[in-house]
Amino acid sequence: MHSDVIQRTTRQRQVILEEVKRLRTHPTADEIYERVRVRLPRVSLGTVYRNLDVLAANGDIVKLAPGRAQMRFDGNLEAHYHMTCIHCGRIEDLPLTASDNPIDILEKMTSHLTKYGVFGHKLEFVGVCTECTAKGLRFPEMDTVESGIPSENEDDASGRQGKAGMGIRVSRNINKEEGYDI
Asked: Could you give the CA distance from residue 118 to residue 107 in angstroms, rounded to a whole number?
C-alpha cells in the first residue's frame, strides 16, 4: 500500500523509521520524538510528526489512530491483532497464528453471504493489562440493560435468572465514528 509519490529518504526519516520498528510498544509521536532526539539532538517535534505521516502514507509503518487519545504507530507490517488496555492505553500484539484465526473463516463467509468483495477487516480486543490489574484497576461495570442480560440479582421478562456470582457481563459497543461493531 505504498504511495505513488516517491519521496527522498532523509537521515531524519530513516532514524524515525528505525525507532518505530525497534519499539514493539506501539509508541506515540512524543515517545518516538524522545527516542529520535537521543540520536538526532536537533530534530524538532514537527519534523517527527511530518515524517511519521509520510512513512504511514508510504506504507512503511501503520498509524493506529481511530478511538485513541493519542495517535500510535506500529512498525510491524505483518497482519496481526492488537489488545488495548482500557485504562493506560497500552497496545500489545496478540500472538495469533493463521491456524488459530477464526476471523479468516468469518471473512470468507462474509464474502460469500454478501455482495461485497471483502478484502479485509478491522478487529481490536480491549481489556485490562497486567500492570493495571496489579494496581487494582478492573474492567468497568457495563450497562447490563443495553446487553439484554439481566443484572446479577434481577430476572428478565422470560423468567431467566441473572448471572449472580458468575462475573459474566456482555455488552455490544458501537463505534459511532467508524460505524463498526467492536
From this structure: 7
pTM over 0.70: no
* Residue 178 pLDDT class (50, 70, 90 cuts): very low
Going along the chain from its start, the domains and CATH numbers come out as 1-77 (1.10.10.10)
Q: Could you tell me if 128 and 150 are in contact, meaning their C-beta atoms sit under 8 angstroms apart?
A: no
Residue type, 15: V
* Tens digit of each residue's pLDDT (9 = 90 or more) over 103-150: 777 877 887 788 788 777 777 888 999 999 999 998 876 544 344 444
3-state SS of 73-136 is: EECCCCCCCEEEECCCCCEEECCCCHHHCHHHHHHHHHHHHCCCCCCCCCCEEEECCHHHHHCC
| Residue 23: HSE in the Cβ half-sphere, 13 Å Cα cutoff | 23
